[in-house]
Amino acid sequence: IGGCVVDPDVADAADDVADAVGEWLHRTINLIIVLERHLKSVAQCGDDEGVAN
User: Fold this and answer.
1) Is the Cβ–Cβ distance between 46 and 53 less than 8 Å?
2) What pLDDT does residue 4 have?
3) Radius of gyration of the chain (CA)
4) How is residue 50 annotated by DSSP?
5) Contact residues for 53 (Cβ-Cβ < 8 A; gap 6+)
6) Which pLDDT score, from 0 to 100, does residue 49 have?
7) How many helices and strands, by DSSP H and E, does the chain display?
8) What are phi and psi for residue 39, nearest 5 degrees?
9) CA–CA separation, 31 and 27 (whole Å)
10) CA 16, 20, 24: angle at the middle one, nearest 5?
């Protein structure tokens, strides 16, 4: 058995998967940032109104 030869189609598919995972991570991180900001603003709003939690 010779060296490891990667089929070009397999390499392309692996690149597509890597791109998809990267895109998913990027969106997930953005979502977490947005939610965190939202929660902070809600907490800030509650503090301003003197609401006891």
Assistant:
1) yes
2) 75
3) 23
4) T
5) 46
6) 58
7) 1, 0
8) -65, -40
9) 6
10) 170
- pLDDT, tens only, 3-50: 677 788 988 999 999 999 999 999 999 999 999 999 998 888 766 655
Amino acid at 40: K
Q: How far apart are CA 29 and CA 39, in angstroms?
A: 15
pTM of the model: 0.57
H or E, element range at 49: none
**Cα separation of 17 and 39, whole Å?**
33
What six digits make up the tokens of 38? 């939202």
Residue 28: both structure tokens together: 């997930």
